[in-house]
Queue: 2 jobs
Job 1
Amino acid sequence: AQSVTQLGSHVSVSEGALVLLRCNYSSSVPPYLFWYVQYPNQGLQLLLKYTTGATLVKGINGFEAEFKKSETSFHLTKPSAHMSDAAEYFCAVRKNTGFQKLVFGTGTRLLVSP
Amino acid sequence: GAVVSQHPSRVICKSGTSVKIECRSLDFQATTMFWYRQFPKKSLMLMATSNEGSKATYEQGVEKDKFLINHASLTLSTLTVTSAHPEDSSFYICSASKLAGGAPYNEQFFGPGTRLTVL
């Protein structure tokens, strides 16, 4: 079965600082991996995804993530935080075959201070 | 493209009443729709998956008779919380995908969510 662990329920950074949100996964088969962002009282928006191919994937709003199979990780980074990046971020995993059920991590709230 | 809407965005109801939440794909046909429940400061928990014209598949622990899901058309799915109680208060989010469930990959597009409060 697939599972996702997000380390740190809250991450605080200053505006302009590096953003690093951690995600480790467990999967018995090669996974598809996703990062979603959720703003208050809104649904989820896809930031980026890894399916196959290049392990460094770039997403919207300057975010990127690197799939590291040896570390079973898919950490999300952004070189320079912006105030508008403050939100809840969810990592998710699903099997790359068969049914498309997503399994979400518990989320990390990113706080950005001036 | 790929916009999903939910209605209502917020609903408050009395204990014992039923509430219907609609999920619509506005600019695409959704062969599969998903319903999630999100508790405060918690992750999204998949409740059920519905394919157009078929009965929904519920996740373990989700009461089928309490959370009725209908996916009568390719653009509309509804979740009805029957005989709602305060413990049903939560944020309900739907998502929709364009291709059938067996496809190797297709993106889920999420609605904005519905905040249900049961008094």
Job 2
Amino acid sequence: DTEVTQTPKHLVMGMTNKKSLKCEQHMGHRAMYWYKQKAKKPPELMFVYSYEKLSINESVPSRFSPECPNSSLLNLHLHALQPEDSALYLCASSHRQGAVNEQFFGPGTRLTVL
Amino acid sequence: LAKTTQPISMDSYEGQEVNITCSHNNIATNDYITWYQQFPSQGPRFIIQGYKTKVTNEVASLFIPADRKSSTLSLPRVSLSDTAVYYCLVGDGKAAGNKLTFGGGTRVLVKP
């Protein structure tokens, strides 16, 4: 299984809502990533987990809260988002953290904040 | 992190070879060069990675000159389905905590 799955595919939420994005992989990868991508822009790294521990936080606002409950799962908890947070949220995983490790990306969650 | 510069867009026709050059003038000794492909509303997909000279796999070739200040992704005999955005990334191959930063990307349009 060389797939990264993400749920939901689409999410619409109000600015006062709390929601979560979920990402799962069963490739035995020990590094997992969250990216944010706006239309016609490159993906921007948000968080990196290595061996279930937060390794990199790219100064992401606290309204985004990542969680890695085990080596296969990665969540992104959303609270009090702003309309400008609307974007495609991509999850990725790799064998280990590091630039030479191929990242496998999921299809993304299209988030709309009203 | 080494900064990368790519053309914003390129047009080609089916059956032609497409070459995309990426400039990375301040590449460091331990840096590797990686290319990803992204279709609309999908996550990026790894294409190829190299350190120096030439690397070839079933979908592409990567040419890296001796000074490593640039690299060229070559897609042979493209089809309509190769229409996508192609990203060149440079990152430290030895640092365990290193991350990849996506540059602007090149939007390739293959025409019939």
